[in-house]
Specification:
309 residues; alpha+beta; Rossmann fold; D-amino Acid Aminotransferase, Chain A, domain 1; Dna Ligase, domain 1; 3 domains; 6-stranded antiparallel β-sheet; 4-stranded antiparallel β-sheet; 10 helices; 35% helix
Length: 309
């Protein structure tokens, strides 16, 4: 891919921030910044936790490598739109909805996309009835956190309430979700292209924060082992799921498989990780695209996003 580095102008790589995913974001941002500078692009690190947003006024474009609240939930996207600065990833609405697992499920459910059974939890919930409805194992999740922060796997009756109490410390909106245990997978989307599916095989009970970022024994399989027909079906469904949110630019859609070979869409990541453990760069490599090319392609999409909006 031939590019003119000067055509991008001055680029801010937004990283860090104040969410629970700050440390992961710093790693993603450092990788993105290195890739851009290797390509001769005039890029600089920008941490919204330490710099005021008005300092972005001198930038021509922004690569969002923030994860979690205030970076992936539409807030920074709204600020950039107001400032007229093109940015990577989806706009305000898609980012806000994608960050909210509960409302994402409502939208996908209305469209007829396959999702796991779930229930919204609160202090007054009949936890025993939820366990019976969803079965065991089930998962409890803060609806608006990422990187599996606050997620618990419930395998025994009578402990759902305890798992809820831990999750609600991270977010007042908490969901319980039926466990689909036939395999964890993800589909990366860059522009109009769905990249090869990656299968995730954690050594832990599920793909938690430790398995994602701290362990070296998590296995990633690409090719993923699904038939070509099934992979194409799921890739098309993932693109539909992303577009349903109004998504543009790039994303990663996670899904599960059951023992009978049925797939269930889980959530969408509108600012996916770009660390050395991250899944989008892995899928890009399988498609013949190295890390630097991937980063530049994502940055190129920032212009398309602003024009389409």
């Amino acid at each position: 891919m031939t590019i003119n580095p000067r055509s991008f102008g001055k680029v801010a790589v937004l990283m860090g921030g104040s969410s629970a995913e700050r440390e992961v974001s710093l790693k993603s941002g450092a990788g993105v910044l290195s890739a851009l500078t290797r390509q001769g692009i005039n890029a600089y690190a920008f941490d919204p936790a330490h710099e005021t947003l008005d300092a972005l006024g001198g930038f021509d474009r922004a690569f969002i490598a923030l994860h979690g609240r205030f970076g992936e939930d539409g807030t920074i996207q709204g600020a950039l739109e107001l400032m007229g600065i093109p940015f990577t990833g989806p706009g305000v609405m898609a980012s806000a909805v994608g960050m909210d697992k509960f409302r994402t499920k409502l939208l996908w459910q209305a469209m007829g996309l396959p999702i796991p059974d779930y229930a919204l939890l609160n202090e007054a919930s009949d936890f025993e009835a939820v366990e019976k409805k969803l079965g065991l194992p089930l998962f409890v999740k803060p609806a608006r956190e990422g990187s599996s922060i606050g997620v618990a796997m419930v395998t025994e009756s009578g402990v759902l309430a305890e798992a809820y109490q831990r999750a609600v410390q991270h977010d007042p909106l908490v969901i319980a979700e039926a466990g689909i245990m036939g395999g964890e997978y993800t589909v990366a989307i860059v522009g109009q292209t769905a990249l090869p599916i990656v299968k995730i095989e954690p050594a832990t009970a599920f793909y938690d924060y430790e398995a994602k970022y701290l362990r070296d024994d998590t296995r990633y399989l690409c090719p993923c082992g699904l038939s070509a027909e099934k992979e194409a079906e799921i890739q098309a469904g993932a693109q539909q799921a992303f577009q349903a949110l109004g998504g543009k630019g790039w994303s990663r859609v996670d899904f599960l498989m059951d023992a009978e070979g049925r797939h269930y869409f889980l959530e969408v990541n509108t600012s996916p990780g770009m660390t050395d453990h991250s899944l989008v760069p892995m899928a890009a490599r399988a498609a013949g695209m190295d890390y630097d090319e991937l980063v530049v392609r994502i940055l190129l999409l920032a212009e398309d996003h602003q024009r389409d909006d």
